[in-house]
């Protein structure tokens, strides 16, 4: 329209704010490599260095975990549920503050998040020289009232994998 005025009845469109990429923490030891997303506290990539997809020498390494946004989405995650129904807990969009990294057999990583209600969530993740991850979850309650929180961990596959023609003899 002349003069840059909007046409009558035209809706204005505003762009959604851009979301910064999640901070990624490398995972590395002699037997595995991968990465942890500080957004949602997810172990979203894990490759087994000792195993190949086939017996061929140049075959790709076995990928055990993959980001939830991929067709092969299969990941590990840690979190909390508010048993009291009123305490704000971290979710898939929570950006954790990271201390340390990369995660190695000699270097644990600490994740911290403050919910703004007086609770500070902490997760200390370590990895041994083989395949074992160890997560220590805790909450520091600085509020006057007690809270009821339940820690959890899960391995989740986002989609059903192709299983046609797959058979395991008994």
List the defining traits of the structure above:
four-stranded antiparallel sheet, mainly beta, 0% helix, 170 residues, 42% strand, 10 strands
Instruction: Give, in order, the helices and strands.
Output: EEEEEEEEEE
Low-pLDDT stretches: none
Coarse morphology:
globular
As a percent range, the share of helical residues equals: under 10%
Main structural class: mainly beta
State the end-to-end CA separation: 74 Å
Number of strands: 10
Give the integer mean of the pLDDT values. Answer: 89
What does the largest sheet look like? 6 strands, antiparallel
Strand residue content: 35-45%
Number of helices: 0
Which radius of gyration do the C-alpha atoms yield? 22 Å
Walk me through the topology:
Layout: E1 24-28, E2 32-37, E3 42-52, E4 61-65, E5 74-82, E6 97-99, E7 109-114, E8 119-127, E9 133-141, E10 149-157
Antiparallel strand pairs: 1-2, 2-3, 3-4, 3-5, 5-10, 6-7, 7-8, 8-9
Please provide a written account of the structure.
- The protein is an all-beta fold and 170 residues long.
- The protein is built from no helices and 10 strands.
- The strands form 2 sheets. Strands 1, 2, 3, 4, 5 and 10 form a 6-stranded antiparallel sheet that branches. Strands 6-7-8-9 form a 4-stranded antiparallel sheet, with no helix packed on it.
- The chain is globular.
